[in-house]
Amino acid sequence: MVEKVIPIRIDEGKGLVPSIGTQLITPHGRTQDTRGRVLRDLRISVTDRCNFRCTYCMPKEVFDQNYPYLAHQELLSFEEITRLTSIFSSLGVEKIRLTGGEPLLRKNLEILIEMLAKIHTTDGKPLDLTLTTNGSILRKKAAALKAAGLQRLTVSLDGLNDDVFKKMNDVDFPVEDVLDGIAAAQEVGFANIKVNMVVKKGTNDHEIIAMAKHFKGSGIILRFIEFMDVGSSNGWNMEQVLPSKEVIAQINAVFPLEPIDANYTGEVAQRWRYLDGSGEVGLISSVTQAFCHECTRARISTDGQLYLCLFANEGFDFKSLLRSGSSDLEIANAIMNTWAQRNDHYSEIRGSQTANPTAGSRKVEMSYIGG
């Protein structure tokens, strides 16, 4: 039985108060955290709702019909998200990923994308604007997303066998509709689409080769993600983790692979390409091969809390700054001061007493801050 957990909510406490500081400085992209990591990537959760009930993210036992989702007024508005994104871009952020829950459930999301697409990096380039979706309504939304200025897409898909996939999403949703959504995205011109498969040992690991075969040669990059202990409600245990090295061994035995260099410093996925030139796969190994030392990501929750790690216990309340009359300069300084104090490295200490939250300090749920 999964213990019912309610994530941190604005009406149960506003999180930590960010420090603006007494002497304001000009925003810049050189701020390092205590481990020398700079801020380059921002993930923004636009809704805490999802139409799937994946057992590793939003299990039915917790997220049932009585679950207290955030009220509309608690969410950051599109204008607030755009303002915050512009401030982050002045601090060196180059990549924005919209997440959820399921982000396509946020009404008129294409309007937000159009607003964000107008923001540029400090060197005058457009932001790398991307989105992660379960693909369930991608057929309906693909054209509008592309027209609004979304550059890239990542689709979550945990198997090709319908029975396996329905067991994973736990709402009887057919895999065919997700594949149709991916096809729709390709039809409207999305390139470099990625598909993420969370591998849960004993549940869908027998789908690895089928997934590799299906997407090999398609132009779509398939990435395998180790089952992670995100939040406090997914019943995680190490016995359900299939190490990425075993995933690669399985694929290499059928479709020979070789490792290739990362696209950029801090890329979370280890890249491998097929020797016959028919594409590549990626491995995200947060459990067995921690990459904390290169992590350049921050996360904004659905209600405007800044989280410095996917496995964090608490966030910093930036919605209050947005709604209390703070200037862009003050908010920028608060972000720099918050990042400068960052020391998060959960995946490097997983399993230790330090990494295990107490009953009163649970890890925030992934549906609240995005994956």
* % residues in beta strands: 15-25%
Radius of gyration, in Å, reads 20 Å
Query: How many angstroms does the end-to-end distance come to?
Result: 24 Å
Number of strands: 12
Order of helices and strands: EHEHEHEHHEHEHEEEEEEHHHH
Largest sheet: 12 strands, mixed
- SS element count, helices: 11
CA-based shape: globular
Strand order of the largest sheet: 7-8-9-6-5-4-3-2-1-10-11-12
Low-confidence stretches: 1-13
Structure report:
- Residues 1-13 have low confidence and may be disordered.
- The protein starts with 40 loop residues before the first strand and ends with a helix.
- A hairpin with a 4-residue loop joins strand 10 (297-300) and strand 11.
- The protein has helices at 78-90, 109-116, 138-148, 162-169, 175-187, 208-215, 244-254, 319-323, 328-340, 346-349, 366-369, and strands spanning 41-45, 95-99, 128-133, 152-156, 194-199, 221-226, 257-260, 270-274, 280-284, 297-300, 305-307, 316-317.
- With 371 residues, the protein is an alpha/beta fold.
- It is 26% helix and 15% strand.
